[in-house]
Amino acid sequence: MTGWLSRHAATAVGSLGRLVRQPFSSLMIILVIAVTLAIPASLSLVVRNAQSVSAGWDNALDFSVYLQRSVSEADARSLASLIEQRADVESVQLVTAAEALAEFREQSGFGEALDQLSENPLPHTLVVRPGSANTSQSIVLLQEELDNLPEAEAVQVDTEWVQRFHAILDILRQAIVIGAALLGVAIVVIIGNTIRLDIQNRREEIEVTKLIGASNAFVRRPFLWSGFWFGLLGGALAVGLVFYGLFLLEQPVARLAGLYRSGIVVMSLTAREALAVIGIGVALGLAGSWLAAARHMRRIEPR
Amino acid sequence: MIQLEEVTKRFPGGQEALAGLSLSVDKGEMVFVTGHSGAGKSTLLRLIALIERPTSGQVIVDGQNTSRVKRRKIPAYRRQIGMVFQDHKLLYDRTVFDNVALPLVIAGMSYREAGRRVRPALEHVDLLHKEKQNPATLSAGEQQRVGIARAVVSRPKLLIADEPTGNLDPDLSIEVMRMFRRFNEVGVTLLIASHDIALIDKLGCRRIELDAGRIATPNTDPDGWDDEGDWVTVAQSGEDPEL
């Protein structure tokens, strides 16, 4: 057993030495693997961050209750404080018809046209911010209840786009999974092809080794180790690339968070995920070299 | 040690390298196979090394019928036989030491354990002082000695050599043959293909001459070495030769 281990260790070191002796071509392959692994890893990070940022939106989204035009400002004000006492409501802000018109005048540029109106066509509006303990169902209930108030004319909910956004993120996440699978196949092919060329270059050596009694397993072993190293180093470099990308994004995200006055924290790869990326690299490397070695090693026999 | 019974090897295309060849080599013998190129010397050795399979007939090596050695078992079979080649077939990406250690490493021996066997083998061929060099830096004679050390390092009972002196000048050839002789003296059976008849006759070993894939009959021997008395042709029936 220890003999077996030490022989494997010797082969592993030998294969690594071979990579080091061809630094340029080895680096190219490792870089290709790293980029191929880093693309889906970073895309899924982006999606996950988008999901976490938008996760709160569903429940904490403000909605507007437009009151009947007949409701006076004083009634509106007392209704607002009444609603605010509900457990599932965090706050209610009254936007009076006059305020709404002033804002509209300012933002729409229809100032002069509005002057032609004899009276304010806008109703008073309550902007309701639901409590954070709400689920999406309880928010729908809250909206229905408020819509049923005699003073209410209509409730306008803006969560539809959030749900669409989430649906898009879901699609994106699945697309990334499919894309990652395709890229995984690409890595297997790249490593397989590299190992195949290596086998062809070392054809004579393989023949000689077989001539003096080496089994297929013996001649295959160094190539499997090459695939292992390509996968390991490519995976490690991929993790490095992702972390470097996060480092580059740190400043812009902090600025964005400042603009929103919110504590947006970018979710990074966890240690387990980083290991998973490296592990996938190793698995793909082994798969590629195994396919190449199994296919070509048998054909090379001493002549 | 080696028995061939009515062995024919026909290549695709109909060319016959061996035509019903029968011969026998006893344990502890040192036997030369001679003949023109194309006479079937190499094919004979290749059948013994299981690089080729006979079209018909049987090759029995050390009691094993080679036709029963499955493809998967060929590596283990080859490890019992030492092989020396005209072109050395060394690996030039590693040291002399590593070349000689290779059969032991293949057999699963640890590197350190192998070292204890490699050094005596290198000492045998007088190359211990060059163990750390790359074989490419050695002369042809030295490279051939590395090849010989590699062939004997796992202490095979049988050693086959295909034109081991083909690329060497006469002095080096004699030296190589002396080495073979010494292995023979400690009990190794040797089967050596060679065309260096003058040298073979100096050694006084049995000589099997092949012609067109069968044992040459003395009167067809173009070199006229038929009556020297120090070699014996074997009857095509495959009887053991009498010396």
Keywords:
heterodimer, A: 303 residues, alpha+beta, Alpha-Beta Plaits, 2 domains, 4-stranded antiparallel beta sheet, B: 243 residues, alpha/beta, 6-stranded mixed beta sheet, 10 strands, disordered C terminus
Can you tell me about this structure?
The complex is a heterodimer of chains A (303) and B (243). Chain A is α+β, with helices and mostly antiparallel strands and 303 residues long. Chain A folds into two domains: 2-55 and 165-297, no CATH class; 63-156, 2-Layer Sandwich (Alpha-Beta Plaits). In chain A, 73% of the residues lie in helices and 8% in strands. Chain A has eleven helices and four strands. Chain A has a four-stranded antiparallel beta sheet with strand order 2-3-1-4. The two termini of chain A are 34 Å apart. By secondary structure, chain B is of the alpha/beta class. Chain B is built from seven helices and ten strands. In chain B, the strands form two sheets. A six-stranded mixed beta sheet of chain B has the order 6-7-8-3-9-10, sandwiched between helices. A four-stranded antiparallel beta sheet of chain B has the order 2-1-4-5, with helices on one face. In chain B, strand 7 (158-162), helix 6 (170-185) and strand 8 (189-193) form a beta-alpha-beta unit. Chain B is globular. The model of chain B is unreliable at 219-243 (pLDDT under 50). Chains A and B meet through helix 1 and helix 9 of A and helix 2 and helix 3 of B.
N-to-C order of helices and strands of chain B: EEEHEEHEHHHEHEHEE
The overall pLDDT average of chain A reads 86
Low-pLDDT residue spans of chain A: none
The counted number of beta strands of chain A is: 4
Q: How widely separated are the two ends of chain A?
A: 34 Å
The tally of domains of chain A stands at 2
In sequence order, what are the helices and strands of chain A, one letter per element?
HHHEHEHHEHEHHHH
> Beta fraction of the residues of chain A?
5-15%
Unreliable segments of 5+ consecutive residues of chain B: 219-243
Shape of chain A: rod-shaped
Instruction: Give the strand order of the largest sheet of chain B, numbering strands 1, 2, ... along the chain.
Output: 6-7-8-3-9-10
Secondary-structure-based class of chain B equals alpha/beta
